[in-house]
Every structure is written in structure tokens, then in C-alpha cells.
Amino acid sequence: MKIIYLNVFENVEEEKRFNKIAEFIKKEKPNMLVLSEVGKWKNNFKNRLKKFKVQTKFPYHFQKNHILFFSQHVISCPRHIKDAIIKINTVINDEKITVIASHLSPDSEDKRLSQVEAIIKNINNEDKVILIGDLNSLSPLDNYDEQKLFNQLKKINIIKFGEDKLRKDVQKKILNFGLIDTVREFSKKFEYSVPTLFNKDINHFSKLRLDYLYITLPLKPFLKSAKIIRNDETNQLSDHFPIIAEFNL
């Protein structure tokens, strides 16, 4: 079983890039896919969705806010938790899998903490759960030069990671809850998810890991691989690199 997440950047309204993303997904053949920043496909949403499903051959989907979830398997009990956070259940080879897909606030760590608290309330650590998305926060597992990064942020007046110091409260809360950082299971070096060559905005001024794929402990024995896909192709798909995990299910 394979799952992919990609923040597509401002609704991927350009037809050429839209097709590139669809071709990338078609080639990777995931069982499940999460896209974010697709909420403003304007009045053409139904047509865009239909075209994407035809190109990628996903029979099932669920959309709320700007999160769009696709599946090759029947979806049950899809639910909007709050903001850009959704929860979906599915069954793969008799294994019940829960996916929580999210795009946390770009505004502040305090707002993200509130959102993470809502996410945690929806996770049973005894179930097989995947938390995936752009969590817009820094991990204590990544070895940033904290003073240098904080000074860079302060210089360009970016305060979303902390006003007086770098804050990592969101990621610490997730880790303390017991979720497993899948990318870290396979790589101890720094694996950044922004910036790409496609777009380097002011918020992506330096290499940062903002996109994550967490799992509960019962899924760990099934985890085969997890990584952020950085190559020539994904450098041109969005302002974020996609993240992918495979499971022996």
C-alpha cells in the first residue's frame, strides 16, 4: 500500500502543471493520495476533479476546505474535523486504516497547537492511523542551526515559527503523543520539503521540513519505506516536494 501527500500550491490552476502532477501520480500509482490547496478551483471544481480522477484512475474521493483525499479503496465515515483537517477510514487487505490529512495554519504556533490538539483527540493509539500533510512547523528531530535560522526569520519579519525564539511545540506534542515520524525511520540526515525550484517565496527562504507523515505504533511493523521525493520532476510540480510512504499491506 502506498500513500502520497502533495501541497499543490495555490490551486494548481495552470493546465500544464496540473497535467504534470496528474502524470506524476499516475506513474507512482498510490493507493491513497492527499492534495492540499485545491479549495479554490473556482466554479470549475467538478470538471477539474473529474479530469484528475480520469487521469489518475481514482474511483473514490472526499473533499473539504482545501483538502482533497483520493483512494483506490472504499472510503467510510469521512469527516471534517476542523479547518483544513479531515479524517477518513478505509480497509486494505482486511486491515482498517485511518488517515488524518491536514494543512495546519501558516499563521502561528499557537493556532497550530489548537489544531493539533483536535487531531490528537481523533487518534486512538491502538488503531492503525496515518497523520499526513503540511504541518507548517519545525521538528526537534531536525538539526537546524537554531540561532542562525531565527535571525534569518527575524530579518525578513517571519514570526510564524516564534516571535522570541524558534518554537517546536507542535512537533513535540505529536512526538510526545507517541506518533512515529516515518521519514526519520529511514533517514537520520536532514530531509527538507521546501523550497523547490518551481517557487521560492519569502516563507520558503531556506531549507525547511514542513511536510510530515506520522503513523501510530500498530502500523510500524508494516512500514516499508518513507521519504520526501526530491528530484528534477518534483522540483517543478509545486512549492513543496511530495512525501510518500509504502506499507506491506
Topology readout:
Elements: E1 2-7, H1 15-28, E2 32-36, H2 45-56, E3 60-64, E4 67-71, E5 75-82, E6 85-92, E7 95-103, H3 109-121, E8 129-134, H4 146-155, H5 169-177, E9 180-181, H6 182-186, E10 211-215, E11 223-228, E12 243-247
Helix pairs in contact: 3-5
List its traits.
249 residues, alpha+beta, Deoxyribonuclease I, Chain A, 6-stranded mixed sheet, globular
Measured by DSSP, the beta-strand proportion falls in 25-35%
Q: What is the CATH topology assignment?
A: Deoxyribonuclease I, Chain A
CATH class: Alpha Beta
Instruction: Based on the coordinates given, report the CATH architecture.
Output: 4-Layer Sandwich
Low-confidence stretches: none
State the strand order across the main sheet: 3-4-2-1-12-11
The percent of residues in helical segments reads: 25-40%
Name of the CATH homologous superfamily: Endonuclease/exonuclease/phosphatase
Number of strands: 12
Structural class: alpha+beta
Structural domain count = 1
Gyration radius, to the nearest Å? Answer: 17 Å
Main sheet makeup: 6 strands, mixed
Oligomer: single chain
Tell me, rounded to a whole number, the average pLDDT.
94
Written as H for each helix and E for each strand, in order along the chain, the element string is: EHEHEEEEEHEHHEHEEE
Question: Can you describe this structure in just a few lines?
Answer:
The protein is α+β, with helices and mostly antiparallel strands and about 250 residues long. The chain is about 25% helix and about 30% strand. The protein has one domain: Endonuclease/exonuclease/phosphatase (Deoxyribonuclease I, Chain A), CATH 3.60.10.10.
